[in-house]
Amino acid sequence: MTTTTLGTTTGTVLEASGVTMRFGGLTAVRDVSLTVGSGEIVGLIGPNGAGKTTFFNCLTGLYVPTEGAVSYKGTRLSRKPHLVTQAGIARTFQNIRLFANMTVLENVLVGRHTRTKEGLWSALLRGPGFKKAETTSEERAMELLEFTGLAHKRDHLARNLPYGEQRKLEIARALASEPGLLLLDEPTAGMNPQETRATQDLVFAIRDRGTAVLVIEHDMRFIFNLCDRVAVLVQGQKLVEGTPDIVQADERVIAAYLGTPVENGNGNGNGDSTAETAEEASKTNTAETAEAADEETGDTP
Ligand SMILES: Nc1ncnc2c1ncn2[C@@H]1O[C@H](COP(=O)(O)OP(=O)(O)O)[C@@H](O)[C@H]1O
Ligand SMILES: [Mg+2]
């Protein structure tokens, strides 16, 4: 393990050990350990309610885990979200959180505030020290908009972007904090197949720029194409972890997905193979999540 902040050396980027999160009588995450190495893309899958988002919240300081420890590049993380971002972990949310009435460019500039001396308020109020930093910041922000394919939308209000582009903008904003690790919570929820494929390429490109990625997603094809390693959470516990081949072939994983009640199911019980049925279940989950996220689109943090 290394404690360098350059993010170019090999080593462990994230180390979560024995993370447990209880809400009253409910244990949402139970004794989960997970590492992400530099240059890695790691997937986190599991049925709805398995504790995936809660685990992310424990990594980013949004929740203080009941038990366990989280380290980033060998240093124990603070429990304050802005200090976690400062340390080098950025995230996107399952339910998109953009500043709906700010432009695309402004949203990315806000994401940069942990990396500028001037800070958030100076950036928003355009204080005296801000002008100097502004040009650099804007250049960096525009570079990220180019990278995510949103440069032509720089002056559009975030709330007017189509859904898929809002998800991309969230990624651009997260990247603006120059993270060594990016956490993506259902980045393709609500996307069509082309957008999903573009997101896959984007995640590869992010990794190639030197940012490790931990991604939650219901879309199995997306996860298994993308990830070097996949961990499966079921009822708060890590059931299986391994390469996509190993996880895909694991009977317990298939069983865990088939065991999930599929709400609004339209009776597809026509003797499908288990793999197809599991995929149907995951599609249904994705659609539900997309609906839920749609309702929240436009919320400000
Ligand atoms: N703030 C909270 N208070 C109480 N229970 C919560 C809270 N957040 C999540 N939970 C519960 O924890 C469990 C895991 O939820 P979540 O992490 O959102 O699952 P996933 O992201 O895998 O679908 C669920 O039973 C959920 O209701
Ligand atoms: Mg979730």
From TrEMBL:
Residues 291-301 have a biased composition (Acidic residues). The keyword Iron-sulfur does not apply. Transmembrane segments: none annotated. GO terms for biological process: D-alanine transmembrane transport; L-alanine transport; L-isoleucine import across plasma membrane; L-valine import across plasma membrane. It comes from the Bacteria. InterPro entries: AAA+_ATPase, ABC_AA/LPS_Transport, ABC_transporter-like_ATP-bd, BCA_ABC_TP_C, P-loop_NTPase. Keywords: ATP-binding, Nucleotide-binding, Transport. This is ABC transporter ATP-binding protein. It comes from Streptomyces piniterrae.
